[in-house]
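Table S2 (continued). Query chain:
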Amino acid sequence: MRRCFCFLMGILAAAALAWSGSSDPVSAVEGALAGYAEIQTSPDMAVNAPVMVREVLTRAERAGFEASNRAAVVILCFRAGEIVFDEERFSAEEILSGSAFKGKVIPALEIASQEDADALIAFVQTSGLEDAYVMSEQPELVGAVRAACPNLVGIWDARETVILDEISVRDTLNRNLAKIALTGPGQLTAGQILRLQKLLVQVWQEAGDDLERNTAATAGVNGILSNDDEALYRVLDSFSSNAMLRGPIVVSHRGLSNLEDENGELYNENTVRAARAAYDRGGADAVEIDIHLTTDGRAVVMHDDTIARTTNGSGNVETMTSEQLKLYQVNSRSSTGDPIPLLDDFFQEFQGDDLIFYVEIKSTKEGIITTLKDAIEEYGMSGRVAVISFHTEMLEKFRRACPEISVGVLNSSLNVMGSDYTSALRSIKSQTGALNATFHPSYEQLDGQLISQISARGIEICTWTYRSQNDLLADYTLGYGSYTTDYPDWLAETAYRIEALQTAFTCREGGTLTFPVTVYTRDGGTYTANANVTVLSGALRLEGGADGYSVADFGEATVLFYVREQITDYYVYSSPVQIRVEQEAAGGGCGGCQGAAGLLGAAALGMAVLLRRR
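Corresponding output:
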């Protein structure tokens, strides 16, 4: 019989289904299990390091956990109101209030039946449990618990599921109020993982050995479930503290970039031309656009309520028809005017690309929901859209219309004093929990420690809007899931992926060897660099650095290549690669041969860390 698994990190907050925009502190939750664990994070860990998760399902695992633990999240088997170790049952409140659990780790409670779901709902309501996950192989059970207990975060255990594509994963998660998919090794590629993260859901991966742990870490997963938390800690601790294991998503605000068009003029905001430049030349992963509703039921892309600031006309957008808007042009940043675009214009222009749209609903008219849904369906954009808004009531209506699409809550006044992360978690959860939403604050509100506490609970923090290059570069390694900026071109030439140029090498005794890689930048450029090497396993022993390695022992090894990104000063890693270094005959030089067997070995392990384009 398959062991009962439950996964991941616990989550937040108080109750509060709808949030009106008030920044008043959320009331404390009462009950024996109310409160939040203070997760210990290492300042030496890599940027966006995955959350460490372990399972405690047997008496032996319980004893090991109570003796020593590195994980932030502990998976427990919850059956009919009790925690089960092997076949022995214990009071859930007794276990979770014990000194090894309460205030130290986040429980992830795995359920397997409707009886378990009903019992968990009752337990949460009587105990005040607020810092926990609910997990199941049956996503509808997660949805049932989440609907009744929005303070929990949902995890779909997809390890036994045949995954057809990443969009079906996103759909299953959102339809069942879950935010995290727990997968097995190899179920999703690095590109699919990144695509899901762009669509505002998270991926966790189980890893059974060091190769799988390194593969998961360099694929950019949000969390790793390991049967050996000490081994997982050693793997994560082996990366440089400024290693970027999961590159953040760069969002072009209103489609803007600091680029000039063919006439030497800046692009106008919220126009199709601006979005095209941000994507093609600025390296943006996503474009944020704002929509209002015209009197004839069309979604028009415009930031302000009126057209006065950005066009050669005047008037309130939502008192005009789409035909009236055609009389004016957007000209706020250049003398070259652009048509005031409809949402349809953006979707039609980018139908054949992989650009993601973060559509902000500005309107409070209910008709905007139907108009947005119709446009998404007409242009087949479901897998390319997330919806954000300050108006949570509009997000609620959109979720009812399109339950498979992710939503995010915008916030400009978190109102958290000092280091009171408990109040912050409760406030954020009160805004996002019932909506299964991500949290989108202005970037001045959070610090690195608070971001770590929030991220450990499965809530992605997507921050806005950077107009200072110094601020953006200073915050780039804080651990945000995405950065929205008017100037995505500041990051256009940053490295996001590396690939080995060769995997078979020869070197004479006493000589030096370099390991060339292709470095890919966000704007589509490439360059060649010599990589540093970390040997994970094998007979090969190297000494030195990127400028030249000497070979202490020849042979094969599984390695990680990594290079320093010059603009933001972080390291980009490959996923594990199998290489071979043979001794050259006396008199020969040091070099490499691009052998088919070596390249096939590298391909089998997967050479790409982060894929930004299809």
